[in-house]
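Notes for week 9. Today we move from apo structures to complexes. The key idea is that a small molecule is not decoration. When we ask for a structure prediction with S-adenosylmethionine present, the ligand SMILES becomes part of the input, just like the chain. The input block below holds both the sequence and the ligand string. Read it once before you look at the output, and try to guess where the molecule might sit.
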Amino acid sequence: MNSSTPDYSNRMIQQLYLLRYAPAYIYEYEAFYEALMDLEGSTSFLRIFSIGSGSGLDYYGAYRAIKKKGLPPDFLYYSGIDVIDWYYRTTLNNHRYYFYKQDVTRLYSLPDRFINVLFFPKSISEFSNESFSRLLEVICNTAFSREQINICASVRRSRLEDDYKRLVKIVECLLLKGDYTLDLTHNSLEDNVQGESIFYPEDIFHFLSNLRDYCPAYRRRICRGERDCDTLNRKPMKDTGYRQYWIIRLVRKERN
Ligand SMILES: C[S@@+](CC[C@H](N)C(=O)[O-])C[C@H]1O[C@@H](n2cnc3c(N)ncnc32)[C@H](O)[C@@H]1O
Protein backbone atom coordinates (compact mmCIF):
# COMPACT_ATOMS: atom_id res chain seq x y z
CA MET A 1 0.00 0.00 0.00
CA ASN A 2 1.36 3.47 -0.76
CA SER A 3 0.53 6.75 1.00
CA SER A 4 -1.99 7.80 -1.65
CA THR A 5 -4.04 4.62 -1.22
CA PRO A 6 -7.42 5.45 0.29
CA ASP A 7 -8.28 3.82 3.59
CA TYR A 8 -10.81 1.31 2.26
CA SER A 9 -11.58 0.07 5.76
CA ASN A 10 -13.37 3.36 6.43
CA ARG A 11 -17.07 2.96 5.76
CA MET A 12 -17.45 6.48 4.39
CA ILE A 13 -14.56 5.99 1.97
CA GLN A 14 -16.30 2.85 0.74
CA GLN A 15 -19.55 4.74 0.30
CA LEU A 16 -17.83 7.50 -1.65
CA TYR A 17 -15.93 5.00 -3.80
CA LEU A 18 -19.10 3.13 -4.67
CA LEU A 19 -21.13 6.28 -5.33
CA ARG A 20 -18.50 7.50 -7.74
CA TYR A 21 -17.44 4.32 -9.46
CA ALA A 22 -19.81 1.39 -8.91
CA PRO A 23 -22.12 1.94 -11.91
CA ALA A 24 -19.24 2.54 -14.35
CA TYR A 25 -17.17 -0.34 -13.04
CA ILE A 26 -20.05 -2.82 -13.06
CA TYR A 27 -20.69 -2.03 -16.74
CA GLU A 28 -17.01 -2.23 -17.42
CA TYR A 29 -16.64 -5.65 -15.76
CA GLU A 30 -19.75 -6.91 -17.51
CA ALA A 31 -18.23 -5.94 -20.88
CA PHE A 32 -14.96 -7.57 -19.84
CA TYR A 33 -16.59 -10.93 -18.94
CA GLU A 34 -18.71 -10.84 -22.09
CA ALA A 35 -15.60 -10.28 -24.19
CA LEU A 36 -13.83 -13.08 -22.37
CA MET A 37 -16.68 -15.54 -23.00
CA ASP A 38 -16.86 -14.44 -26.66
CA LEU A 39 -13.21 -15.22 -27.35
CA GLU A 40 -12.76 -18.28 -29.50
CA GLY A 41 -12.21 -21.39 -27.43
CA SER A 42 -13.67 -19.94 -24.22
CA THR A 43 -15.81 -22.01 -21.94
CA SER A 44 -19.07 -20.33 -20.89
CA PHE A 45 -18.54 -21.74 -17.41
CA LEU A 46 -16.68 -19.17 -15.31
CA ARG A 47 -14.74 -20.12 -12.25
CA ILE A 48 -13.21 -16.88 -11.08
CA PHE A 49 -10.67 -15.97 -8.45
CA SER A 50 -10.75 -12.23 -7.89
CA ILE A 51 -7.81 -10.64 -6.07
CA GLY A 52 -8.66 -7.43 -4.20
CA SER A 53 -12.35 -8.04 -4.86
CA GLY A 54 -13.56 -5.21 -2.60
CA SER A 55 -17.31 -5.05 -2.66
CA GLY A 56 -17.44 -7.55 -5.52
CA LEU A 57 -18.25 -5.20 -8.39
CA ASP A 58 -16.64 -7.63 -10.81
CA TYR A 59 -18.89 -10.37 -9.43
CA TYR A 60 -21.96 -8.31 -10.33
CA GLY A 61 -20.44 -7.69 -13.77
CA ALA A 62 -19.91 -11.44 -14.27
CA TYR A 63 -23.43 -12.17 -13.04
CA ARG A 64 -24.89 -9.71 -15.54
CA ALA A 65 -22.76 -11.07 -18.38
CA ILE A 66 -23.90 -14.65 -17.68
CA LYS A 67 -27.52 -13.52 -17.51
CA LYS A 68 -27.24 -11.53 -20.73
CA LYS A 69 -26.02 -14.65 -22.48
CA GLY A 70 -29.04 -16.58 -21.21
CA LEU A 71 -26.86 -18.92 -19.15
CA PRO A 72 -28.00 -20.22 -15.76
CA PRO A 73 -26.44 -18.56 -12.67
CA ASP A 74 -24.74 -21.83 -11.74
CA PHE A 75 -22.34 -21.24 -14.64
CA LEU A 76 -20.76 -18.71 -12.33
CA TYR A 77 -18.46 -19.82 -9.57
CA TYR A 78 -16.74 -16.93 -7.84
CA SER A 79 -14.17 -16.53 -5.09
CA GLY A 80 -13.02 -13.11 -4.00
CA ILE A 81 -10.23 -12.28 -1.63
CA ASP A 82 -9.68 -8.97 0.09
CA VAL A 83 -7.82 -7.85 3.15
CA ILE A 84 -10.89 -5.78 3.99
CA ASP A 85 -14.40 -7.13 4.29
CA TRP A 86 -16.32 -4.30 2.64
CA TYR A 87 -19.65 -3.40 4.23
CA TYR A 88 -21.43 -3.54 0.91
CA ARG A 89 -21.34 -7.01 -0.59
CA THR A 90 -23.98 -9.51 -1.64
CA THR A 91 -23.87 -13.08 -2.93
CA LEU A 92 -26.98 -12.50 -5.10
CA ASN A 93 -28.18 -15.80 -3.60
CA ASN A 94 -25.54 -17.77 -5.45
CA HIS A 95 -24.10 -20.44 -3.18
CA ARG A 96 -21.11 -20.68 -5.52
CA TYR A 97 -19.83 -17.42 -4.12
CA TYR A 98 -17.00 -17.41 -1.59
CA PHE A 99 -15.24 -14.59 0.13
CA TYR A 100 -11.88 -14.82 1.87
CA LYS A 101 -11.04 -11.97 4.22
CA GLN A 102 -7.30 -12.22 4.00
CA ASP A 103 -4.12 -10.59 2.83
CA VAL A 104 -3.43 -12.67 -0.27
CA THR A 105 0.34 -12.22 0.13
CA ARG A 106 0.22 -14.16 3.40
CA LEU A 107 -1.04 -17.34 1.79
CA TYR A 108 1.16 -20.15 0.58
CA SER A 109 -0.97 -20.72 -2.54
CA LEU A 110 -4.39 -19.65 -3.82
CA PRO A 111 -7.22 -21.57 -2.14
CA ASP A 112 -8.85 -22.66 -5.42
CA ARG A 113 -6.75 -24.46 -8.01
CA PHE A 114 -9.73 -25.24 -10.27
CA ILE A 115 -10.24 -21.67 -11.46
CA ASN A 116 -10.21 -20.70 -15.13
CA VAL A 117 -10.08 -16.93 -14.53
CA LEU A 118 -7.59 -15.13 -12.31
CA PHE A 119 -8.72 -11.53 -12.19
CA PHE A 120 -7.36 -8.28 -10.76
CA PRO A 121 -10.22 -5.77 -10.72
CA LYS A 122 -8.42 -2.40 -10.33
CA SER A 123 -6.18 -4.03 -7.79
CA ILE A 124 -2.88 -5.05 -9.40
CA SER A 125 -1.41 -1.60 -8.73
CA GLU A 126 -2.33 -1.74 -5.03
CA PHE A 127 0.66 -3.94 -4.20
CA SER A 128 4.05 -2.53 -3.28
CA ASN A 129 6.96 -4.08 -5.22
CA GLU A 130 7.76 -6.20 -2.22
CA SER A 131 4.24 -7.48 -1.69
CA PHE A 132 3.85 -8.08 -5.42
CA SER A 133 6.90 -10.38 -5.32
CA ARG A 134 5.22 -12.31 -2.53
CA LEU A 135 1.96 -12.46 -4.51
CA LEU A 136 3.87 -13.85 -7.46
CA GLU A 137 5.14 -16.69 -5.24
CA VAL A 138 1.61 -17.40 -3.99
CA ILE A 139 0.28 -17.67 -7.54
CA CYS A 140 3.20 -19.80 -8.70
CA ASN A 141 2.81 -22.16 -5.74
CA THR A 142 -0.75 -22.91 -6.88
CA ALA A 143 -1.18 -26.24 -8.68
CA PHE A 144 -3.69 -25.02 -11.28
CA SER A 145 -5.46 -27.90 -12.93
CA ARG A 146 -7.85 -26.56 -15.58
CA GLU A 147 -7.25 -26.96 -19.29
CA GLN A 148 -7.37 -23.20 -19.64
CA ILE A 149 -6.53 -20.34 -17.35
CA ASN A 150 -7.14 -16.69 -18.20
CA ILE A 151 -4.91 -14.21 -16.39
CA CYS A 152 -6.70 -10.87 -16.49
CA ALA A 153 -6.51 -7.35 -15.14
CA SER A 154 -8.72 -4.33 -15.40
CA VAL A 155 -6.67 -1.24 -14.69
CA ARG A 156 -6.66 2.52 -14.44
CA ARG A 157 -5.05 4.32 -17.33
CA SER A 158 -2.58 6.16 -15.12
CA ARG A 159 -0.48 3.02 -14.48
CA LEU A 160 -0.83 1.08 -17.70
CA GLU A 161 2.79 0.21 -18.31
CA ASP A 162 3.66 -0.92 -14.78
CA ASP A 163 0.46 -2.90 -14.41
CA TYR A 164 0.97 -4.70 -17.70
CA LYS A 165 4.51 -5.63 -16.69
CA ARG A 166 3.13 -7.17 -13.51
CA LEU A 167 0.60 -9.23 -15.42
CA VAL A 168 3.31 -10.46 -17.76
CA LYS A 169 5.47 -11.42 -14.77
CA ILE A 170 2.67 -13.66 -13.49
CA VAL A 171 2.32 -15.26 -16.92
CA GLU A 172 6.08 -15.79 -17.26
CA CYS A 173 6.24 -17.42 -13.89
CA LEU A 174 3.46 -19.87 -14.80
CA LEU A 175 5.02 -20.62 -18.19
CA LEU A 176 8.33 -21.38 -16.52
CA LYS A 177 6.69 -24.07 -14.43
CA GLY A 178 6.09 -25.88 -17.70
CA ASP A 179 2.48 -27.09 -17.36
CA TYR A 180 0.93 -24.39 -19.54
CA THR A 181 1.65 -22.71 -22.82
CA LEU A 182 0.57 -19.31 -24.14
CA ASP A 183 -2.62 -19.41 -26.17
CA LEU A 184 -3.75 -15.85 -26.85
CA THR A 185 -3.63 -12.30 -25.62
CA HIS A 186 -6.48 -9.89 -25.94
CA ASN A 187 -6.83 -6.30 -24.87
CA SER A 188 -9.79 -3.98 -24.62
CA LEU A 189 -8.50 -1.75 -27.41
CA GLU A 190 -9.36 -4.59 -29.80
CA ASP A 191 -13.01 -4.63 -28.71
CA ASN A 192 -13.95 -1.29 -30.18
CA VAL A 193 -17.14 -1.25 -28.12
CA GLN A 194 -18.99 1.98 -27.39
CA GLY A 195 -18.91 3.05 -23.74
CA GLU A 196 -22.14 3.15 -21.77
CA SER A 197 -23.49 6.45 -20.45
CA ILE A 198 -24.42 6.53 -16.81
CA PHE A 199 -27.18 8.71 -15.50
CA TYR A 200 -26.72 10.47 -12.16
CA PRO A 201 -29.47 12.68 -10.74
CA GLU A 202 -28.19 16.25 -11.06
CA ASP A 203 -28.25 17.02 -7.31
CA ILE A 204 -26.26 13.87 -6.44
CA PHE A 205 -23.71 14.54 -9.17
CA HIS A 206 -23.33 18.12 -7.97
CA PHE A 207 -23.05 17.07 -4.31
CA LEU A 208 -20.33 14.51 -5.03
CA SER A 209 -18.40 16.83 -7.30
CA ASN A 210 -18.32 19.62 -4.70
CA LEU A 211 -17.85 17.64 -1.55
CA ARG A 212 -14.94 19.78 -0.44
CA ASP A 213 -17.30 22.69 0.25
CA TYR A 214 -18.79 20.67 3.11
CA CYS A 215 -15.45 20.21 4.86
CA PRO A 216 -15.25 22.59 7.86
CA ALA A 217 -11.43 22.74 7.72
CA TYR A 218 -11.47 23.71 4.05
CA ARG A 219 -14.12 26.34 4.66
CA ARG A 220 -12.06 27.88 7.44
CA ARG A 221 -8.94 27.62 5.25
CA ILE A 222 -7.10 25.56 7.86
CA CYS A 223 -6.85 22.24 6.05
CA ARG A 224 -3.46 20.57 6.06
CA GLY A 225 -3.62 18.05 3.23
CA GLU A 226 -4.29 20.23 0.17
CA ARG A 227 -4.03 17.26 -2.20
CA ASP A 228 -6.42 15.12 -0.16
CA CYS A 229 -8.75 18.04 -0.22
CA ASP A 230 -8.73 18.15 -4.02
CA THR A 231 -9.59 14.47 -4.29
CA LEU A 232 -12.76 15.17 -2.33
CA ASN A 233 -14.09 16.87 -5.44
CA ARG A 234 -13.56 13.92 -7.79
CA LYS A 235 -16.50 13.60 -10.12
CA PRO A 236 -18.50 10.38 -10.43
CA MET A 237 -17.79 8.44 -13.61
CA LYS A 238 -20.50 9.03 -16.15
CA ASP A 239 -19.34 6.72 -18.89
CA THR A 240 -17.29 3.60 -19.46
CA GLY A 241 -15.40 4.63 -22.58
CA TYR A 242 -12.06 4.76 -20.70
CA ARG A 243 -12.00 1.10 -19.70
CA GLN A 244 -8.79 -0.86 -20.04
CA TYR A 245 -8.28 -4.56 -19.50
CA TRP A 246 -6.08 -7.39 -20.67
CA ILE A 247 -6.65 -11.10 -21.01
CA ILE A 248 -3.73 -13.50 -21.36
CA ARG A 249 -4.79 -17.09 -21.86
CA LEU A 250 -2.72 -20.13 -21.02
CA VAL A 251 -3.65 -23.67 -22.04
CA ARG A 252 -2.45 -26.86 -20.48
CA LYS A 253 0.22 -28.70 -22.41
CA GLU A 254 -0.58 -32.14 -23.74
CA ARG A 255 0.71 -34.82 -21.39
CA ASN A 256 2.81 -37.52 -23.05
C1 LIG B 1 -9.04 -0.08 -5.75
S1 LIG B 1 -9.78 -1.27 -4.71
C2 LIG B 1 -10.71 -2.18 -5.93
C3 LIG B 1 -11.93 -2.81 -5.34
C4 LIG B 1 -12.79 -3.60 -6.33
N1 LIG B 1 -12.05 -4.71 -6.90
C5 LIG B 1 -13.36 -2.74 -7.42
O1 LIG B 1 -13.27 -3.12 -8.58
O2 LIG B 1 -13.96 -1.72 -7.12
C6 LIG B 1 -8.42 -2.37 -4.36
C7 LIG B 1 -8.75 -3.47 -3.36
O3 LIG B 1 -7.59 -4.30 -3.22
C8 LIG B 1 -7.54 -4.73 -1.87
N2 LIG B 1 -6.18 -5.19 -1.53
C9 LIG B 1 -5.04 -4.44 -1.53
N3 LIG B 1 -3.99 -5.20 -1.11
C10 LIG B 1 -4.48 -6.44 -0.83
C11 LIG B 1 -3.89 -7.65 -0.35
N4 LIG B 1 -2.58 -7.71 -0.05
N5 LIG B 1 -4.69 -8.74 -0.18
C12 LIG B 1 -6.00 -8.67 -0.47
N6 LIG B 1 -6.61 -7.55 -0.92
C13 LIG B 1 -5.86 -6.44 -1.10
C14 LIG B 1 -7.95 -3.48 -1.10
O4 LIG B 1 -8.37 -3.78 0.24
C15 LIG B 1 -9.10 -2.95 -1.97
O5 LIG B 1 -10.36 -3.45 -1.56
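The mean pLDDT is 91.
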